[in-house]
Structure formats: C-alpha cells, structure tokens
Amino acid sequence: MAERERLRYRFFEGLLEHAKTRTSLHANISPSKRSWVGVGSGIAGVAFNYVVRQHDARVELYIDTRDSDKNQRISGALADNKDSIERTFGHSLKWGALKGRQACRISKAYGNRGYLDEDKWEAVYEALVDAMAKFGSALKPHLKGL
C-alpha cells in the first residue's frame, strides 16, 4: 500500500471504532484504503458515506443508481424536504448533481481536518460521527418513501 492508503486505512480504523460508540449505521463494515467507507441506505445505489481527503472530511448521501434520471428523481424528492432535513440535521447541507458525472450528493464538509492531520483525528472522529448520527436521522425517514 502507498503511504496515503496506509494513513486512510488507519484513519478509518479509528473512525469506525469511534462510530460504534454512537451509531450502528457503519458497525459492520471494515476500514478502507480508499477515500471513503459507506453503507447502503436501503435503496440500491444510495449510500451513507464517510469521506476523508488530505485536509478535509465529510459525511454524505451518495446517489448513483447508474441511471442519471433516477438519481435526479431521488435527489429532487429529497430536496423537496430540504428545510425539514436541514432543520433535523441542525445545519445547512450541500445539495446537487456532481459536475461531469451522473451521480448526486448531499453532504456536510469539515475543513482543516483530514487524514494528513493526524493530531486532529480525535476531533475529526467526533465531528463526523456526531454528524453521521444526525444525518442518518434526518434523511432516513425521507428515504423510506422513495
């Protein structure tokens, strides 16, 4: 593994252990050397992900059913409930299609804290796990009807 892959794997090991103390959403997955780890939402092609880059991290609902129109319909249906979702989550979220791709994403990013900022990992874990617990609670009721 490349050094960045080793760091991401170690980051996700710690994050997933920390997550188990707060939510069962990602309890049965393994760390990854990629920039993300995720679990299905109950809808094929729609996943709750933790994402980490060199100096930032985010929680996201990634929508990629391999059908651009279906992705837009799912994203649009959720956006119809944007105010309720953001109120339950407690913060504004970034919504929309990904430029040059068929996928859509709903996310909350946390800057200045990534896998290269090892001295901040505990703070990143806390922020991401707290966000994911609220994120899942805010989105899951709206996913059930899709």
Secondary structure blueprint with pairings:
Elements: H1 3-19, E1 36-40, E2 46-52, E3 56-63, H2 68-79, H3 82-89, E4 94-97, E5 104-111, H4 121-143
Antiparallel strand pairs: 1-2, 2-3, 3-5, 4-5
**What fraction strand?**
15-25%
User: What is the strand arrangement across the widest sheet?
Assistant: 1-2-3-5-4
How many beta-strand elements? 5
How large is the radius of gyration?
15 Å
Q: Characterize the main sheet.
A: 5 strands, antiparallel
**C-alpha geometry:** globular
The percent range for helix content is 40-55%
Termini distance? 39 Å
Report the order of strands and helices: HEEEHHEEH
Mean pLDDT over the full residue set: 93
Specify the structural class: alpha+beta
**Number of helical segments with 4 or more residues:** 4
Spans of at least 5 consecutive residues with low confidence: none
Structure write-up:
- This protein has 146 residues and is an alpha+beta fold.
- It contains 4 helices and 5 strands, in the order H-E-E-E-H-H-E-E-H.
- The protein has a 5-stranded antiparallel beta sheet, covered by helices on one side.
- Helix 1 crosses helix 4 and helix 3 (82-89) packs antiparallel against helix 4 (121-143).
- The longest helix is centred in the last third of the chain and has 23 residues, at 121-143.
- It is globular and about 40 Å long.
- The N and C termini lie far apart (39 Å).
